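task queued by scheduler; priority normal; single chain, no ligands, no partner chains; default sampling; output format set to C-alpha cells
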Amino acid sequence: MRKLEYTFKTDTLFKMLFVQYPELLKKLVADLLGIPLQSIGQFVIRNPEMPPENLGDKFCRLDINMTVNGQRVDLEVQVCNGGDYPERVMYYWAREFSSALMAGQGYSTLPRTIVISIIDFILFECEEYDSFFQPLEVKRHTLLSDKMGFHFFELPKLPADVNEDNMLLLWLSLFKAETEEELEKIKEMEVPVMSQAINAYYTITASSEFREKERLRAKARHDEAQALYNARKERDIEIARNLLKMNMPHDQIVKATDLTLEEISKL
C-alpha cells in the first residue's frame, strides 16, 4: 500500500485546505455539529492567516476558529495524546469564550462556544467514536448552560466499513486515511463532496506554498524533539552523578537512567 506523505491530520494541510476551500469547511462543520447545511447563514473564518514566522514556533496552533450563526466554533485536529488533552481543550474554550466579551457588555451576551476535536487516539473508555460534553448537575443532569460544548471524534474507533450515505463517517474516514488506496476507496463512492475534498488535497499538497509551510513546521517539530532529548540527557547525567556519589554500581545506574556504561564511566 502506498503510504501518504501527508494526511488530512497534517496541521499545515488541514489549515490550508479548509481555509482555501471554505465551502468544504462549511459542509464539514455542518456534519460535525449534526446540523443541516442550509441552516448555516453566518459563516466566518476568524483566523485564516498562517504567518510564516509563526510556523516555526512549536507553540503555534493551526486550529480553525469560526463564527457559525452567532456561535463560536473552534476546530482542532490532534494526533498525539500528551495526557492532558481534556484540560487543553477546556483552556482553549475558556480563552475563546472570555475573549468574546466586549467592554460594557453583560455576561449574558457571551456567545455559545464549542470546541470540536478530531483526535487520532482513544480518549474515552467506550465504544462510541463521537462524544459531546456539556456542564450538567451530577444528580439531576440539569443543563447549567448550553454555551459550553465539547465534541470529540476518536478516529481509532471508526468502523471498518463506511456507507456513502453517512457523511460524518465519510469525513472522519478522510482524516483517518493513511494510504492512497484509502483515499481512492472513498473517492470511488462518487460522493461529490468527498471527491472535491480529495481533489483539493492533491492540489494543496502539490503546491510550493504548502511545501514551504510544512518544511517550517517539520523543523519546529524536530527542534522540539531535540530540545526534549537534550533536557532528558541533562537530567539523566545529574541523576547519574548523584548516584555515583552514593557509590551505586554502574550497571544499576544504567537501569535508573538512559545512559550507557561508557557515558557513566566518563562521569
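post-processing summary
- The beta strands are 43-45, 64-68, 71-78, 113-119, 130-133, 148-154.
- The CA atoms of residues 68 and 155 lie 24 Å apart.
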